[in-house]
Structure formats: C-alpha cells, structure tokens
Amino acid sequence: MNLYDLSVYWEPNHFAEPWPPKVELSTSEEQAELLAKKLNIAPSDFQDGLALAVESVSAEVFTHIGTHCDAPIHFGPITEGKPSRTIDELPLEDFYGDGVILDLRHKEPRSGITVEDLKQSLAEIDYTIKPRDIVLLMTGYDKYIYEEKYLQDQPGMTGEATEWLIEQGVKLMGIDTYTFDRPFGAMVADVKAGNKEALFPAHFMGRKKEYYHIEKLGNLDKVPVRHGFKFCAFPIKVKGGTAGSVRAVAMVE
Prior knowledge:
This protein is α/β, with parallel strands linked by helices. It contains seven helices and 15 strands. It folds into two domains: 22-58, no CATH class; 62-252, Glucose Oxidase, domain 1, CATH 3.50.30.50. The chain has helices spanning 28-39, 72-75, 115-124, 149-152, 159-167, 184-192, 201-208; strands at residues 2-5, 22-26, 54-58, 68-70, 78-79, 82-83, 96-103, 112-113, 134-138, 156-157, 172-175, 212-215, 227-232, 243-245, 249-252. α5 (159-167) crosses α7.
C-alpha cells in the first residue's frame, strides 16, 4: 500500500492565511533556562544542559489553519432543525472511507463549481457516487499556496453543487483551496452588486443539510487513481470546536 500525504503545512504563510499563525521555536537551550526556573532547579541539571525543544503557535483563527475540517457548528448554530454538532461530536467512521477525486482544474478563476461540473468530472472517470463516498475536489490551486492568487483567484463550490453531493449520500467532502466557497473578494463583489445570496452559499448549505468539509488539501494530483482508494483525515479533538486540523492521507493498494 502506498500512502499519499494530502495535507499542507501549519506555517506563517501570509499568501495562504488571511490570519497567518505565528509559529515560534523555543530551543533546547532556551527551554533549559525556562523550565529550570519553573522546576526550581539549575539548567545544568538537565542532561548536557539541554531541555526539550517546543514551539508556540498562535493565530486569530487557530483551528482554521492548515489542512482542517469544518464542523457543522461553523456553518451555523442549527442544522436540520437541531443544534449543530461540534468537531468532537462527529463520528470517526465518517473520516475514513472510499475516496473519489474530481478533476476541476479547468475552472476559471473565481468561478463557481456547478452540479454540471461535478457530473462531467464523474463521467470522465466513468464513476457513480455511492453513499458515504468521500469526494475530493481538485482545482490545482494548492500549487499557488505561496502566491497572491491562492487567496484571490480560486474557484469554489456553489450551494447547489454542495447540496447535490449531499443528496448522493456524501457526508464528508474536501477541496484543495483556502475556502470551500469562492474567494472572499469575489463573494463581496457580488453582494455589493446586489446579490445577497453570494456570501458562503456552500458553507450555509450546512444549515439546511448536515455535512462537513475539509479545506486546504494538497497534492491530489499525486494520487495515481481517481477512485478505488481509501481516504482518512481524522480531526483533532477540540472540545466544542468549530474545526479541527487533520492529516489527510490517500491509501492506494
């Protein structure tokens, strides 16, 4: 079995994060000084005078950095008439299953991915979605993660396309872009032009029908098959969390 890492880094990359995390390393030497004070011992009491190196991570939107899964509570407080579930309440079984990659690299910048786009991509690989499939949308924008266009020009899912996948029995879906919807700038431009429905239609579909999605996948093009592989992406167990970081992996026999 070959494993393919479909995750991107936690890193202070302003091209990929509107609120980039601050990741600071505290070396073994520095930690010897700090930890010695806390433990009321001397730095030299540590073997070779070295303690355990650590890093601190801080960000305005801590759980929504790097490759992560958005939980229903992120979309709104109520889903299908019931309180929305948090990331720690989602069953692990939903994060392991049969993966399907849909090639949408032809989509124009800032455009919406439609139901017809999904059907065409499925026809190209001669595949019919079955319940519990995990659908991964390949736009190719992970290749621009260190460029301005990553946040500005990605295509994104429409509400209708998101609902269509849910209706096929898909619970978990993912995309290799910053957000599941179109870029913030594209949505705001439409709102200012008078379309109040333009803001986060894919996210807000999660208020009507429960589903969850992974954002900021990478390397989908490295997986040698488009279906017939296993996918897993177990989220960090953040109590009451709106999201959890995942290590997304495709497993191909």
